[in-house]
Each structure stands twice: as structure tokens, then as C-alpha cells.
Sequence to fold (723 residues):
Amino acid sequence: MNLLVLGIGNLVMNDDAAGVLVAQELAPKYNNKRDDLLVLDGGTLGLDLLGYIDWADRLVLVDAVELEMEPGTVVKLEGEDIDVAFESKLSAHQMGMKDMLLTSELMGQRPSEIVFYGIQSGTIDMDMELSEPVKKNMPKLTKHVESEIQRFLSENS
Amino acid sequence: MAERIVVDPITRIEGHLRIEAKVENGKIVDAWSSGTMFRGIEKILQGRDPRDAWYITQRFCGVCTTVHSIASIRAVENALGIQIPYNAELIRNIIMGSQAVQDHIIHFYHLHALDWVDITSALKADPKKTAALQQSISDWKYSSEDYFKSVQDRIAAFASTGRLGPFANAYWGHSAYKLPPEANLMATAHYLQALELQKEIIKTHAVLGSKNPHPQTFLVGGMSIPIDPNSQNAINADKIAMILEYNKLAKEFVEKVYIPDVLAVAPFYLDWAGIGAGHKNYMSYGEYPESQKGYPNDLWLPGGIIKGGDLSNVIEVDQAKIAEDCAHSWYMDKSSKHPYDGQSDKNYTGPMPPYDYLDVDKDYSFVKAPRYDGEPMEVGPLSRMLIAYAKGHKEVVPVVDAVLGKLGAGPAALFSTLGRTAARAIETLVTSQRNEKWIMALAANIKAGDYQIHSGEKWEPATWPANAKGYGWHEAPRGALGHWIVIENGAIKNYQAVVPSTWNAGPMDKGDVHGPYEQSLIGTPIADPDKPLEILRTIHSFDPCLACAIHVYDEKGELRSKVKVL
Fold:
């Protein structure tokens, strides 16, 4: 059983960086301790991530979302809803998460459990500053992601 | 009767490139290319430490992350007059080379092949005949009837779920698809094999970059990964053996699958050797320094410019002659500027979305229009291979001649959509072969006792002049990439990146001269304006990358009712 925590987003687009920042915070704490757990800053995707996704049995995705909610709102999605979520995603990347998961499925290697944590963005202009409401709720987002790691560790000790 | 057709977005999977084309009597008579999303990432860099720029620029793009790191560190090294150690030069070559090989394979099989290969037809193929076809083109290991049957079953099972996944949004059954079912099945099998293979090739970046995506070992003055034959945390004999093995896998695939595929498919599409040429102006900065003298000396692939398809005259590139024109772009400053003086203040004057058509008489793109000495230039593998060919390059000439010979065509056939696609395959072959030499050269240099990886003499800002400027060039998979940096008192004063897709996808300039995408589409036959597969073929042959920006889930309504608010 392999767990991949994958933070995605663009580090140079303010709140879009949220997922990457969570991964960068948790990586030093959990990586290189056991070979069935990896926390990865996946940046802005691409097929480079396919190897990691195929490797994972359980996948925790972390990213910024645009749901017209109050900025900083932390949300969770799991099960079948994941596919709906990625079906009409706006992403400028050539290989978005929807395509990655479908490709992984086509190869018969899709992770059996996927859970998604998102945070409603405030600003996604080109810069490297989180908006105040997102900055304020980053610890909350990180805590939820970390609880997934803790659950995994307790189940696979 | 003229009809305007719109393809938006045009990258196969996702993207924000929009093409509008005017069709008369079944042919494109005019075309416009528009990037509908603002980038302007350069502004973030102003005021920052030049030594940190590579880390930020590496996030410019989701697809080609390493290329901006390379261009950025070269720009700073050029500005400060730093020559990096031979080991670092070789490691950069290996990183760039493996990136090019992986990127080209992904482009051909996963972003471009479906313009030529009809997956739905593959389901009708006879696996036995497909096995015979495979065995006739090379001695590749996956060639049995059972194997092709299993691929067919896998695709059929996937399609039966009603989700076509990466195969959605294509014009299946279009009359412009010409391959027999067996060739379609063989290519589909290679699509799947390439997905597995690319995962292996790019492990080289994790080994040499400590991490992938977004390798972390770049450093102004060299690289930061140590060389130590006695340490597991450094480049040692084991790691050299690993990257050699990854490259070997790639090389074998290119020799036995990619090149034979191009040669097997091309004869069905030879009309595309006469479509999609454009201006026939080609530019390359040159790449892969091979001697102890370091970049930009002794480049394996030469730089140069070819104008109007004249292979007898390759001109040297002079960076002072590069300028970006904004006559039809949504920017405040409309004048033509060299990148040192470039501005990125936007001024959107286009229609409010949703809209039917852009007003192409005015501004219609966030992409600027780069010009060399006032002229548009195509960049990419075709430019690199043509310039190498015209200069009599030892490795490139025989492969180009062999491919042209098999297709019964002359060099002029390369000025085309098919030529672009063939040139990319040729480049993948020669690069995967050459990459082995760089790996061996690195091993030999380490064995000789040279462990130097970084030159630190100009690391401290106190050693820098108060004012410095420089440019960093890199031949990225998609073409000539340039970063220009102006440093003042230890900080970045101005920064501009002129990326390959800006050269290729840019709009008209102040003289209303079209950019390369636009020009290459004029004259293209369109069988069905509602399904403009032909436009995709030519635009995809350039390997468009307008994928350098935004990334936020934008599903409202239905999804909002499903998410659990925490």
C-alpha cells in the first residue's frame, strides 16, 4: 500500500500555489523515512507525474479551487465525485489531472482510493503572495492533509 | 462564400490557444492565432536576486519546467561572465537531452499521433495482420498476434465505459484519416508503450535533479549535485549506470518504434509534405556545448537562420536584431522593443467573452510578435534539423537523407507539416544517440579525477558590477528559448522571456505580416469546416505550448453541491 500526497498548482500565481506549499511544508517531515509514503510538490502537472500516480494505491490531492465560495474555504471531495470534479476543470496545462487519472486508469494503474482537498482561492494573479483569507486557512488545509498521512501511518505501522 | 471557423482551445488536451481561419472554396485563405490568456510572469522577477530567478522561471510552464531553469541560469552567467565546469556542462546536456527525447516522444504519441491515427478504426483491425505489419517494420519485442489482441481488448473495454479519456474530443471517422485499421492498431499499441516508457526516461531528471518534476540542482555557476564516487548521495558509478540504462531504453524505442512508425505512416499522408510550410524562415540558437570551453562554444547542434527556404545560406544569429512587436497584441506599449527593454503591461481591448470572433483588424492576442531583423521566424526541431542539415552536420545529414530517401522526397518536402513531424523524430533519434556520448564523457571525466561541479568565484553579489545585462539561450524541445536579464545593484531590474511558442504563435506585426502558425495555415484544404482536423494537424506539428499559466478548478454548480466544506 503506497500513499502519495500530491500538491499541485502554480507557485507564481498567488493562491494557486496553495497545494504546492502544503506539499513543500510536509515533505521534509515525512519523506525519506519509509518507502511507501511520498509527499510530492507536483507543480503544474504534466505526464512527468504519471509514474508517481501509477505507483500510488492511495492518492491525496491538494490544490486551489474556484467554486465561488468565501476565499479560504477548505473543501473535501472523495469517491466518484472526484471524476466529476475533474471533468470540466479549467486548466491551461496540456495534461490536466482529469487526463492523468484517465490515463492511469487506461493503463490499469489508477490508485484505488483518491481523496481531494481544496482551498477556495482569493487571487490568482501572477505573483508569489497568498491572499489574507487563504494564508489564514493554510494551517487548516495542512492539518487535514496531515491527518490523512497520520491515518495511513496508523493503518500501516 | 467565405466562412470563419474557430478552434479554441487547440492544444490536444487543454490549453488556451485560439485559431480563427477564413475558409473559401474548401481552402484556408487567411488565419489568425491568438493566445487568450495573459502571462506577464516576468514582472514577478523584478527586484529579486538574480541567483533565485531559475527557481521561479521553472514554474512558468507546466510542461517544460527544466528549460526555463537552463535559460535563466545561462542569462545570469552570461551577464556576470561566469564559465561553468565541464562536468556541469555535461550534466546540463544530459538533462536537456533526456528532456528533449521524452518531450518529443510524448508529443508524437500523445499529442499529435491522434491527428493521423484513428483509434476507432484500430478496433476493426486484424491482430494477426497487425503482427505481420509490426514485424515488417522492425525487430521490436512487442509484435505478436496475442499482444495486439490484448491491446484491442483493453481499448474496447475502456471505450465501453463510455469515457474515452485521453481519446475524447477527436474527429474520429473523419475522411482525412487514411491509415488502414492495422496501422491504426499498431500506432495505438505504441501510444500505450510510450506512456510506460516516458516514465522511465524522465527518471534521469530525478537522479540528476534530486527531484522531478521541477529538478532542484540547478545553480548559477554550475550545478549543486555533488560528484563523489564514494557517496550514495552524490553522482557516482551507480547513478551513471542508471541514467545510461534509461537512455538506452529511450534510444531503442526511438530506433525500433518511433522512426519506423513515422516511415510507415508518412506514405499515407505524403500530400502533407506540400502543406503547412509558412514563411520558410527558420531560426535556432544552437545547443549542447561539448568542449571544455563551455557554452556557447563548440555546440553540437549549430545555431543559425535560414530565410525563405534557402538552404545554401545560413546566417549567424545576432541577438541585437531580436525585437518584440506588439502592434496587434494587448499591451500598453505598442512599439517594437528589444527584450532588454521589453514591457509586459497588459491592455485588453478585445471583446467581452463569450464572443464569436476576435477583431483581427485591431489587437487580438496576449502573445507578442517576435521578429528577427523585422522578419518572423519559425523555431523548433524542424529549424534545428534544417540548419544542421544545411551546415553539413555529421550526425543529422545521414538520417535526414535516409528518411527523405525512404519517402522518395527531396529536402524541399521538409518545409511542411509532415516535415515538422519527421524532423522531430529525426532529432529524437540523433539526440538519444548523442546523449549516450555525454553520459560516457561525464563518466570518463569523473574517472580522470575531476569532481568539480560549481564555479563559485562570482557567487557573491559583492563581486558583481553595479550594472550588468545578459541573455540566456536554450534550444528547448519546442524551439529557441531566450531569457534576457538586466541586473542593477545586485537585483533584477528587468527580465524578459521570449519563448518558442511566442515566435511560432505570435500574431501579425505592424506591417500586418502573419506569424508562423498563421502563415502555415494559409492554403490548407479543409474537407469539413465543422471538423477542421487539418488545422489541428499543422498547428500540432509545431508542438504548441500556450500552457504556461493558470490552474484553478472552475467547476461551479454541480460540484459545489458535492464538496464537503471543512
